Structure formats: structure tokens, C-alpha cells
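Forwarding the complex inputs:
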Amino acid sequence: MDFELMINSFPKLLNATLVTLKLLSASLIFGLIIGLCFAILRINKNPILNKFAYGYSYVFRGTPLLVQIFIIYFGLGQIDYLRSTVLWVILKEPYWCAIIAFSLNTGAYTSEILRSAFQTIKPGIIEAGQSLGISSKIIFYKIQIPIAIRQSLPAYGNEIILMMKGTSLASTVTLMDLTGVAKYIISTTFKPIEVFIVAGGIYLFITFIIHNVIKFLEKKYSFN
Amino acid sequence: MELLSFGKTGWGDELLIATMMTIAVSITAMLIGFIFALIFTPLKLSKSKFLNLIGNCYTTVIRGVPELLVIYLFFFGGSGAVMYVASIFGYNEYIEINAFITGSFAIGIISGAYSTEVFRGAIQSIDKGQFEASKVLGLKKPVHFFKVIMPQMLRLAIPNLSNVWQITLKDTSLISVTGLVEIMRQSYIAAGSTRDPLFFYSFAAVLYLLLTYLSMKLINKLEVRYSRGY
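Prediction (whole assembly, two chains):
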């Protein structure tokens, strides 16, 4: 055991954790918006919109995240038309490519979580709102969404942790996140176990915090 | 389409072999995962606090750390660990472990953590009366486990195991960083030499979709078989 290496690499890894957290928070915010939009499409009665949303979530949940990042980072740059538009400013940066891929991926999972939450809301609650003469818009925003958020909290907590683990793939497109820096230190020092303990410890610590925050929110917003 | 033709000019045959490799790694990893689950599920269910702790450490650490980091640990540390063990037995030559073994072992440990949780949940949700009844009937331990608990457990576990299978299948794409030529690595090579990454990565996505779709169909059949009588 090389404790000196563990202590020396800790600040470097901690610095890289910031990149991981930035990637995570950005993709969760975008992913939540995407997920909400697609969940609403999924519960829509229009079959075309419904199928479209289903196809989106099927494709993104059925393929590895690595393929998605590679298609966006290496693949889209190949289209000449894209290179001439404003979009290229975003797409040439590995940082934004990673965020786009992560957001689309977590969006697909989030849409499934929210859809099942919407569908488990008891019809009686919505009917009660209707019989009180509340407009359907307000029923949606003030009744359905808050209940759905509470219902989906446990599953969404899992999704946050999965996404945090997913951000490690950013290291495959040259970003130096926690895993990227860990790999760099391993390949220069050839001490995989020590680095794994430190980097893994940081990841576990983040997982622990997310887990507890979700638990706290679940308790706070429980119905009883 | 020319790019996908078989023979020297196209990448069709290479991609087909790579797909076989992905399937082979996934199945091996899943089986290694079952072995780990077989060891750690009893630990998690045991009454001893110490054994419980070991089981919980395994599932918590593996499920809380990115797959890629675990793969790097095995990739860089695997042959070192084997050489260390070999040196105890007096063998001091350099040992290189094949990427297939390292990869399926790394993914197997990850998939094992998920399988452990699935089996634990399934066994815990079997009615207590079943355990008591087989005790009262004086069934021997192996008979009790294989004839009473296992069939009931499998029915409950298969839907969740199909999720574990999907995760495992998708995780094998990460082994491409170690140089094992599976779908992802082959697409990377093809994309590099033809300068057509969009096509090859999209084709890789289609292959993965096909694999998940077909395996879901198969698993659904299994599910029907194991829930006979319910």
C-alpha cells in the first residue's frame, strides 16, 4: 500500500470531482426537462405522439451510453451541414457533447419514471378536482405534477445515482473527470488499487449524500 | 451498404464476429455474476452481523462506483494481482491475462452485485410458511433449497434478472477500453479506417437494440414458463 500516493492524488481527484458534479447537475437539469416533456407525450392520447415518445425512450434505454456519446461526439461532426451552423460551436466541445448525451439518456429513463408516476395517480383525485370546477390546466400543474413528483422520488433517486456513475464515460471523450484523472494517475504510476480506493471512496461519498438527500425528501413529502 | 458487405472490402463479417463476442462476454459475465450472487446472497441473508457487513460492503461498493473505474482496476491491476499470487507459489515469469477474462470478470463482479440484490429480494418475499413447512416436513437442506425455495424464487427473480441482463449487456460496451474486439471496439476500428463514425456507431446502436430486443423476447418466454400455476 502506497499511502503517500493516496494522499498526493487526493487533491487532484477532488478537483476532478468538480467536473463530475458539473456534468451531473447539468445533465440532470436538462434531463428532467426532457423527461417531463416526453412523459407528457407518453400519457397523451394521440397515438403518433405516444409512439414517438415510446420510441425515444426505447432507443435510449436499449443502447449503451457509450454508443450515444460516440455518435454525438464523433458522429455528428461528420455531417458537413452541421459544421456550418451555429450548433457547431456547441458540438465541437466534448464537454457539451457529453452533457447532451447524458441529458438525452437520463431524459429517457426519467420519462419512464414520471410516466408510471402519472399513471398511478388515482383517478378519484383528478375527478375530485374536476367536480370542484378547477380547470384542467390547474389540475395538471397543481395536482398531478406534485403527486407524480412525490411518487417518483425513490426511482428518481436511483436514476441520479446511475447518472452519476454514467458521467464517468465523459473520460472516453477526453474530459478529465474523476474517472479520467484516476485513469491517468493509474497509467502513470501503475498503482491501480490505491487510486481505486481514493476515487471509489469519493464516488461512494457522493452516492451516500444523494441517497440521504432523497430519503430526507421522501420523508418530508410523504402523504402521512 | 457497401461498408457492411462480407469479405475483404466490407466490415460485415468483422461486425458479426464482434457481435458474437459481445454475446459471449455478456453470458460469461452473467454466469460469473451468478457465482458471486451465490456466495453473497447467503451472506446478506445470514443472521451474523459480520457476514451481513461483508455482503453489504460488496453490493454497496460495486453499485456505488462507476463501472468504468472497476474495469480500469481490473485492466491495470489484474495481471499484477495474478502475478503476485503466482509468485507465492514460486512462479516469477510475467503473466499476461487475456482481455476476455479480465473484461468478463470485471463485468461479472458488477452484474453479481445486482444479481445478489435481486436474489435477496426474491428470497425475502417468499412466504415464511414455506420455510417452516419444509422444516416441519423434515426435508433435507438441499432438497429444501432446490425443490421448494428455488422454483418460487426464480418466478419472482426472473423479471428483475432480465433488467440485470440488460445492464450487463450494455456494460460490456465499456470493455472496449481494454482493447477486446466487441461491437464497440470493432465500430471504433471501422470508423477510424473508413472515416465514417456516424454510420458505424449508429450501426452499433442498432446491433445493441437488436440484442436487447431479442433477449427480451426470450426472457418473456422464460417468465411465462416459470410462472405456470399463478
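Chain A has a mean pLDDT of 90.
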